[in-house]
């Protein structure tokens, strides 16, 4: 079956109707899934295996048959571990059909088809009884239903149901228990992801400060989890205000209540400061005694944590609704509220038992100021970047004249405000304060002279930034919008940025390569069926596509010098013909060529640029420093060339990169 799906093209802005295969969503989901990352997580796998062996032993020692329920079996891995450990029978539940199909094949291939029954259902639909999916209730419950926030993938309601209907009382559970830890910190860097700091404008008549409206200042923000690779956050970027404390634990072997609740702990600050952020992570004990422990603790808590890299489980950053001054030694109450799927925090002065019970409000934070809906966390960080603002400030000063008529095309941009403070008299802003800035609610191609009060635009500006952009070059939408408004521009219009360039570099990733690398054999089980399925989905459409990743979180080493590969001149309209380039880039360091990274640089004026990608190569080893607010495009090579010595490497990688001006898409091909 084919379906037509409508979507706005992020680069050209035009509405497209694409004929999609029925399986299109599946392929997308499989191609970008985290299954490979999980199966490469050796620490996780070995600890599950140990925990499962121990649970099967405990049941057998009681003289019982070991009947396993594995909820969310994926490839069938944990069920195969259980069967190998001597379990008598496993019910492997998987809701995602393509994965359940793969599990059937994998179980068969590894010779466990008589011990494992794969059931393609959501666990809450599973029936028990002589004619049911399961003959009887299980006495071992194995799951891996956790996300970085622990409960975000619905582990609690799933466990609640399983204990009521699918497992015996007193069952063994692997993992046995999860514990959530918190630490209070002050961090200007992380706080800048949730609040708008005052913007300093250097005008000719002195410095002016744009302050954030109080609605934004006092807004608690949005409830969505902020999960990051905290191990990439240098210790100089935050100040620890409390010890690490246990917020709450969940015992998975006992009945579970998923209904909203709260937990409260008392903290004694180890330092005075501004409490802004709660950092949080969890660990799981695979057995009741807690000897088999798998932890997400960051490097300053557990020094070896950086070696256990994983992307499917990271750490959480929670923003307190407001920053609170705390004093060393003066106790405070930290409350964690949760519903079935998410958590949020609040901090109060420590009070008596009764008093504190009286006032527990468990509504999750909702953005009242709109800004948190318009700007995501990296975008807040970008707008708060004073160095970046300075570049726009300087370049606007160069191009603005007192009689300029300006139009800004960018989503949720502060440029109009900046320009206003710099003295621009007439300002229009398309798409998205005062009398001096007129907001036009029209798409660029629908702009009419009356929107502009019959004036011609003499300065067209953009950051450019659009919320619909996923890949760096999607912001070329600015170029299309500029083309659409061409008839409203004066003949000597100034366009800022005047041009953009696409840059490329070959890299070796420290860890990120794992997410797209085949697993082959995992803990002795052949999971190549899953590798093939992922490869098939990648080939379905994505094969020649790059994917966005915030590389400040994913260390890599440059193997080639960065190279400018394409330029886009915004002073001209978008050309009819395609823009393409071919060339080769020399490998200058030994290492594994995992892929190419691509990013955009915007040339605001002839001598002022903002870079959304590589900031610098920090040392002779080739370690890279990336723009912390932007995602870069990563194109993974299908085969990795590895070499110990430079002379064994191909000396160059050849590339062909094409920008199709009709579709706005950039396609690429590399040969090693
Ligand atoms: N157990 C595998 C895969 C874990 S990923 C492993 O450890 O490698 C979690 C899987 O659980 C996903 O495939 C997801 O589709 C599935 N899932 C999540 N909740 C489920 C539920 N309630 N019932 C059935 N499957 C579920």
UniProtKB/TrEMBL annotation:
E.C. number: 2.1.1.321
Main location: cytoplasm
Signal peptide stretch: none
Any GO CC annotation of this UniProt entry: cytoplasm
Record-level GO BP terms: cell differentiation; methylation
Keywords: Chromatin regulator, Cytoplasm, Differentiation, Methyltransferase, Nucleus, Repeat, S-adenosyl-L-methionine, Transcription, Transcription regulation, Transferase
Pfam families on file: PrmA (PF06325), PRMT_C (PF22528)
Limits of the Protein arginine N-methyltransferase domain: 176-348, 498-646
PROSITE patterns: SAM_MT_PRMT
Enzyme class: transferase
Catalytic activity: L-arginyl-[protein] + S-adenosyl-L-methionine = N(omega)-methyl-L-arginyl-[protein] + S-adenosyl-L-homocysteine + H(+)
GO molecular function, one term: protein-arginine omega-N monomethyltransferase activity
Location relative to the cell: Cytoplasm; Nucleus
Domain of life according to the entry: Eukaryota
Listed InterPro entries: Arg_MeTrfase, MeTrfase_PRMT7, PRMT_dom, SAM-dependent_MTases_sf
Function (record text): Arginine methyltransferase that can both catalyze the formation of omega-N monomethylarginine (MMA) and symmetrical dimethylarginine (sDMA), with a preference for the formation of MMA. Specifically mediates the symmetrical dimethylation of arginine residues in the small nuclear ribonucleoproteins Sm D1 (SNRPD1) and Sm D3 (SNRPD3); such methylation being required for the assembly and biogenesis of snRNP core particles. Specifically mediates the symmetric dimethylation of histone H4 'Arg-3' to form H4R3me2s.
Name of this protein: Protein arginine N-methyltransferase 7
UniProt organism field: Urocolius indicus
Gene: Prmt7
């Amino acid at each position: 079956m084919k379906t037509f799906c409508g979507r706005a093209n992020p680069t050209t802005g035009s509405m497209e109707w694409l004929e999609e295969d029925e399986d299109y969503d599946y392929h997308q989901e499989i191609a970008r899934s985290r299954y490979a990352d999980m199966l490469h997580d050796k620490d996780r796998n070995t600890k599950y295996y140990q925990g499962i062996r121990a649970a099967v032993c405990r049941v057998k020692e009681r003289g019982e048959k070991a009947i396993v329920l594995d909820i969310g079996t994926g490839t069938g891995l944990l069920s195969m571990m259980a069967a190998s450990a001597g379990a008598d029978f496993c019910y492997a539940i998987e809701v995602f059909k393509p994965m359940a199909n793969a599990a059937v094949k994998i179980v068969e291939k590894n010779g466990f088809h008589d011990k494992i029954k794969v059931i393609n259902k959501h666990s809450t639909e599973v029936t028990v009884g002589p004619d049911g999916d399961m003959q009887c209730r299980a006495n071992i419950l194995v799951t891996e239903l956790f996300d970085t926030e622990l409960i975000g993938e619905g582990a609690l309601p799933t466990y609640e149901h399983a204990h009521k209907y699918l497992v015996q009382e007193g069952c063994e559970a692997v993992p046995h228990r999860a514990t959530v830890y918190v630490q209070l910190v002050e961090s200007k860097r992380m706080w800048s992801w949730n609040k708008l700091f005052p913007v300093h404008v250097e005008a000719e008549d002195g410095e002016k400060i744009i302050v954030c409206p109080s609605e934004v200042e006092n807004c608690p923000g949005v409830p969505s989890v902020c999960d990051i690779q905290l191990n990439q956050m240098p210790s100089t970027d935050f100040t620890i205000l409390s010890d690490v404390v246990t917020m709450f634990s969940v015992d998975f072997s006992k009945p579970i209540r998923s209904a909203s609740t709260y937990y409260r702990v008392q903290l004694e600050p180890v330092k005075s400061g501004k409490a802004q952020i709660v950092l949080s992570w969890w660990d799981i004990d695979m057995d009741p005694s807690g000897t088999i422990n798998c932890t997400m603790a960051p490097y300053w808590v557990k020094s070896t944590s950086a070696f256990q890299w994983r992307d499917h489980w990271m750490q959480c950053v929670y923003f307190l609704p407001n920053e609170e001054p705390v004093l060393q030694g003066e106790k405070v109450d930290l409350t964690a509220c949760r519903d079935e799927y998410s958590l949020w925090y609040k901090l109060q002065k420590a009070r008596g038992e009764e008093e504190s019970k009286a006032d527990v409000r468990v509504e999750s934070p909702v953005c009242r100021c709109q800004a948190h809906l318009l700007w995501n966390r990296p975008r807040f960080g970008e707008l708060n970047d004073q160095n970046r603002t300075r570049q726009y400030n300087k370049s606007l000063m160069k191009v603005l004249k007192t009689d300029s008529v300006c139009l800004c095309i960018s989503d949720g941009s502060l440029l109009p405000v900046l320009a206003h403070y710099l003295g621009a008299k007439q300002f229009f802003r398309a798409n998205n304060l005062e009398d001096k800035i007129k907001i036009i609610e029209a798409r660029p191609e629908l702009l009419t002279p009356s929107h502009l009060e019959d004036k011609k635009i003499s300065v067209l500006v953009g950051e450019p930034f659009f919320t619909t952009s996923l890949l760096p070059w999607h912001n070329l939408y600015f170029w299309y919008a500029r083309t659409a408004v061409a008839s409203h521009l004066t003949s000597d219009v100034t366009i800022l940025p005047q041009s953009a360039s696409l840059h490329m570099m070959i890299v070796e990733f420290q860890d990120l390569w794992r997410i797209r690398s085949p697993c082959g054999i995992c803990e002795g089980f052949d999971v190549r069926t899953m590798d093939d399925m992922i490869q098939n989905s990648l080939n379905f459409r994505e094969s020649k596509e790059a994917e966005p990743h915030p590389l400040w979180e994913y260390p890599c080493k440059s193997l080639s010098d960065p190279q400018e590969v394409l330029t886009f001149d915004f002073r001209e309209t978008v050309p009819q013909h395609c823009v393409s380039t071919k060339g080769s880039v020399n490998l200058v360091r030994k290492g594994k060529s995992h892929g190419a990274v691509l990013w955009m640089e915007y040339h605001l004026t002839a001598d002022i640029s903002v870079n959304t990608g590589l900031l610098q190569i920090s040392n002779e080893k080739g370690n890279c420093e990336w723009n912390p607010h932007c995602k870069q495009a990563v194109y993974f090579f299908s085969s990795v060339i590895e070499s110990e010595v430079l002379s064994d490497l191909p000396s160059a990688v050849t590339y062909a990169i094409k920008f199709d001006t009709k579709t706005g898409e950039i396609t690429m091909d590399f040969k090693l």
